[in-house]
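On to my pick:
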Amino acid sequence: MGTVERSRWKRVVVGCAALVVLASVVTGCRPEPAITPSSSPSPSPTMRDTTPGPSVSPIETEKPQSAFELPTACEQIYSASMLADLQSANPPLNDPGVTMLSTENADLLEIIHGGAPTLRCSWGQPSEYGLATNVTEIDGTQAAAIVAALPAAGFGCEALGDGTVCRIEQKGITLDDNEYTRGETHYVGDGAMVTTAWINFAPEGYTEDVVATLWG
């Protein structure tokens, strides 16, 4: 990894991240940057960086024409069994110190932070272990643009239910010789998208459970 790439990953912490497959990276919670892969040692990734976004976007825009109803609490996006697993495996829910972004993809960040109604949820404490998820309302035009943009950004996409799920993952070694894995999983469905970034914590079936709960 070059000096410039190492510098860029140095700012990333377990807060939100976009990834390029099997490259070395670190995660962070920052305003809206896109990430760049690297294959050399990087600073140890953590779950704290900048100021976290609000649980629900304070800017109300006209809602897209859809039957989708944005949940009002994070507990509502999971099945009872998944919620119990998360509470046991990596509490707490919504630690104020976790500012990790749910993605570092510029196209998705523009929508999330552009005033669309959004619910933010995170699991874990500021550390090298956790995840962050946003559920954001979108319209049909935005959905089509996202589905077209993610494969071009290196995501692998496939059908899930009536929508599309896209994933990307990276592995790396920090400057302290600690191995880490980070990634992003995004779902685009009718009326909303679910964006999730994680580091060293990717519960099996996580996004599938959210999709089944919200659209099932």
